[in-house]
């Protein structure tokens, strides 16, 4: 295990300014560390072989070492910055630390190696217990990944002016990349806008431009669904199995259910298939009464079937799901399929699915 900061005679020493001596120790575990200083890799301190440090630390790479220093320079205008800040009460060590003159301190987590959602959640909650705001900033490994739930679940956070966003740091360019205002379209696609930031002032300013209008490609969507059914994709098969008893097919979703609404990226296979599942269960027979409790039960179960995600490290799906329920009920009333009744709705007519005879 290697570190950039060591203790000597009660003082913290940065490896970049350290002399070759034999009396350095790790500020976390207080075990002996040795200065390493080569021509290709910047200076660092190394624990002895087989030493175990009590504070969590990921494996260091040249990218990680360089990136931590670059990030502190980037964030320096926000306050006093320091490397590898040890927090013994929660057994954690932040890659970087920003002690702001006002407001919460900020912990910088420059993530370059694999890490599980459980680990991110544990470290994030640890910082929050101390009133510290953690910035998870992703390295090259993650910058190459396609935008999807795996990244969003672990690392997406909400920042003023950026909405739900992901932060990346490019060591070569020494620039921050931010994928911001992340959302999901009705067909399940993930979207956002990407910009590069040269300084922290740009990060503080935010981006208030409207997102471009999105055109949905329904033929391509149906082609993907048909392919997934052919390949026996478990996620799509689960939806089809739910539709089958009512005599419906996933490729024949009624046009009356189509929507241009976008959602936070929590709806799994997409808002449209969720709407189709809910409608298929509720609009079975005219004159049927649907209670609020029944609507909620069907909507929640359908959310589960489409692979909806209830919780991420930084946010939950509860508000998004509640808004989707209200929007669907409103749309079905407006199009004449439901009528508002006491404590719920009454079915006026059934939906016609594409391909069904009148």
Could you write a compact summary of the structure shown?
With 358 residues, the protein is an alpha+beta fold. The chain is 31% helix and 25% strand.
Key features?
alpha+beta, Trna Endonuclease, Chain: A, domain 1, 2 domains, 8-stranded mixed beta sheet, 17 strands, elongated
Multimeric state: single chain
The chain-level mean pLDDT equals 89
Low-confidence stretches: none
Q: How many structural domains?
A: 2
Distance from first to last alpha carbon: 70 Å
Rg, Å, rounded = 26 Å
CATH topology of the largest domain: Trna Endonuclease, Chain: A, domain 1
Question: Structural class, judged by helices and strands?
Answer: alpha+beta
Organism: Levilactobacillus hammesii DSM 16381
Domain Competence protein CoiA nuclease-like: 60-183
Pfam families: CoiA_N, CoiA_nuc
Domain Competence protein CoiA-like N-terminal: 20-56
Structural overview:
The protein folds into 2 domains: 151 residues, Trna Endonuclease, Chain: A, domain 1 (3-Layer(aba) Sandwich), CATH 3.40.1350; 130 residues, no CATH class. By secondary structure, it is of the alpha+beta class. Helix 8 packs across helix 9. The strands form 4 sheets. Strands 7, 8, 9, 10, 11, 12, 13 and 14 form an 8-stranded mixed beta sheet that branches. A 4-stranded antiparallel beta sheet has the order 1-6-5-4, with no helix packed on it. The longest helix is centred in the last third of the chain and has 17 residues. The protein contains 10 helices and 17 strands.
């Amino acid at each position: 295990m290697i570190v950039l900061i060591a203790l000597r005679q009660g003082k913290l020493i940065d490896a970049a300014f350290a002399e070759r001596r034999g009396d350095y120790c790790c500020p976390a575990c207080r075990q002996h560390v040795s200065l390493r200083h080569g021509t290709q890799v910047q200076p660092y301190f190394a624990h002895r072989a087989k030493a175990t440090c009590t504070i969590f630390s990921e494996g260091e790479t040249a990218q990680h070492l360089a990136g931590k220093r670059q990030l502190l320079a980037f964030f320096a205008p926000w306050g006093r910055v320091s490397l590898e800040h040890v927090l013994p009460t929660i057994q954690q060590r932040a890659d970087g630390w920003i002690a702001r003159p006002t407001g919460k301190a900020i912990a910088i987590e420059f993530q370059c190696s694999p890490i599980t959602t459980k680990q991110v959640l544990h470290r994030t909650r640890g910082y929050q217990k101390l009133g510290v705001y953690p910035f998870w900033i992703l390295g090259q490994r993650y910058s190459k990944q396609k935008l999807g739930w795996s990244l969003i679940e672990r690392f997406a956070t909400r920042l003023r002016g950026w909405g739900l966003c992901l932060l990346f740091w490019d060591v070569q360019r020494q620039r921050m990349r931010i994928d911001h205002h992340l959302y999901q379209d009705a067909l399940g696609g993930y979207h956002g806008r990407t910009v590069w930031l040269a300084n922290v002032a740009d990060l503080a300013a935010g981006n208030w431009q409207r997102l471009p209008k999105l055109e949905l490609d329904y033929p391509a969507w149906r082609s993907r669904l048909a392919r997934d059914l052919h390949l026996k994709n478990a996620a799509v098969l689960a939806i089809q199995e739910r539709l089958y008893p009512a005599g419906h097919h996933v490729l024949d979703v009624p046009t009356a259910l189509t929507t241009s609404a976008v959602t936070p990226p929590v709806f799994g296979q997409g808002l449209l298939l969720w709407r189709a599942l809910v409608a298929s269960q509720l609009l079975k027979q005219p004159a049927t009464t649907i209670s609020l409790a029944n609507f909620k039960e069907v909507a929640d179960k359908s959310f589960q079937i489409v692979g909806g995600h209830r919780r991420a490290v930084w946010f939950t799906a509860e508000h998004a799901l509640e808004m989707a329920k209200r929007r669907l009920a409103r749309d079905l009333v407006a199009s004449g399929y439901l009528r508002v009744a006491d404590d719920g709705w009454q079915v006026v007519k059934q939906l016609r699915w594409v391909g069904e005879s009148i």
